[in-house]
Amino acid sequence: MPDGAKTIRIEVLRYQPGERQEPYAEVFEIPFTHDMSVLEGLQYVKDNLDGSLTYRWSCRMAICGSCGMMIDGKPRLACRTFLRDFEGTVRVEALAHFPIERDLVVDASDFVEKLPRIRPWIEARAPRDLAQGEYLQTPDELARYEQFSHCINCMLCYAACPQYGLDPKFIGPGLIALLHRYNQDSRDAAAGKRNELVHADEGVWSCTAVGYCSEVCPKQVDPASAVNRNKTASALDWFARFLPGRG
């Protein structure tokens, strides 16, 4: 055991299709130090106790979003959640609301397939050639969308969203935040196309305004705010149809 290490139990909800039909809990006792993350704890298990344990990770710096999982019932990034914050046992499960492929790995196909529907790219208002230079923005124009550009596609907000769990047709908080990012970009001209999805049944009106999505976001994107802003814009757009000259 490393100098200064204590021990903690990691209880992992495991699922191994083809080997066992039902998920089951397995407990591993590991040494840990004050600076060890849950991800490092899982890596200790895989390296020293059970090499079959399956999970995703990449950067270990809360940038890639790969290591999202349920930790003591809350969607979190394992790389920025520390073992020191738990007493005795920490329970780790795959992200809620997604099909489980194996152990802590979920099938993200639904999220990935929905991504192009929000048109996550800039459609320029007018074409420019290289001689004209870049598209310029003021600091105020950048500030309108910058917060919503910080999403790392970790899908924690989807695991936190009860409506997505009930109705996976819902486009979901993370993608609505990303849609809002492009709609607010002064260089973009595709808001009208994206708003067709905003107004649709699977758009913002599916949201039941719980707000837990923003609470679990590791980058403070605040997807609930993006949803609510688009609800307001959608309602104003609907009422505007009754104004003179808008029939």
Précis, in short:
With 247 residues, the protein is α+β, with helices and mostly antiparallel strands.
Question: Mind explaining what this structure looks like?
Answer:
The protein has 247 residues and is an alpha+beta fold. It has 2 domains: 6-106, Roll (Ubiquitin-like (UB roll)), CATH 3.10.20.30; 110-240, Fumarate Reductase Iron-sulfur Protein, Chain B, domain 2, CATH 1.10.1060.10. It has helices at 38-49, 109-114, 139-143, 156-160, 162-166, 173-183, 191-199, 212-216, 223-240, and strands at 6-14, 24-32, 68-71, 74-77, 89-93, 100-102, 105-106. It has a 5-stranded mixed beta sheet with strand order 2-1-5-3-4. It has a two-stranded antiparallel ribbon with strand order 6-7. α6 packs across α9. The longest helix has 18 residues, at 223-240. The chain starts with 5 loop residues before the first strand and ends in a 7-residue tail after the last helix.
Summary keywords:
247 residues; alpha+beta; Ubiquitin-like (UB roll); Fumarate Reductase Iron-sulfur Protein, Chain B, domain 2; 2 domains; 5-stranded mixed β-sheet; two-stranded antiparallel sheet; 9 helices; 15% strand
The CATH superfamily of the largest domain is identified as Alpha-helical ferredoxin
DSSP strand count: 7
**Mean pLDDT reading:** 94
Helix content: 25-40%
How far apart, in Å, are the first and last alpha carbons? 74 Å
Q: Biggest sheet: strands, sense, closure?
A: 5 strands, mixed
Question: Over the alpha carbons, how many angstroms does the gyration radius reach?
Answer: 22 Å
Count of separate structural domains? 2
Strand percentage, roughly?
A: 5-15%
Instruction: Label the CATH architecture of the largest domain.
Output: Orthogonal Bundle
The best one-word shape is: elongated
| CATH level 1 class label of the largest domain | Mainly Alpha
**CATH-assigned fold name of the largest domain:** Fumarate Reductase Iron-sulfur Protein, Chain B, domain 2
Helix tally equals 9
Biggest β-sheet: strands ordered side by side in the sheet: 2-1-5-3-4
